[in-house]
Amino acid sequence: MIRVAECSRQLRPDIRPHPYSDKRMLSVDRSRQAVADQIRVPAPDLVAVQWKREAAKDRHLPIGADEIAKLIAADEAFLAAHPITKQPRRNRGRSDHH
Questions:
Q1: N or C end of the chain: smaller count of CB under 10 Å?
Q2: What pLDDT was estimated at residue 55?
Q3: What are the distances in angstroms from CA 61 to CA 13, 28, 35?
């Protein structure tokens, strides 16, 4: 994986990067890697699948669109085969008046 900071150095080798810039780019790279790692985690519900679709719109993620599509398809297949039958804990057994 080519880091953003390395790319900018390759494009403009005459410019010395500011240390703040390198730290920021390292942070951006780590953030994108964290999003990619989260996309690889199985989705517990359809809301998580939708989040993956939205997160996948970032074209700078270190994960391929084909891998994301396969992961989302696997999540959808699993969720279709194992529908959620229980109500969320916060709604079970509660009445409208406390």
A1: C
A2: 96
A3: 24, 10, 8
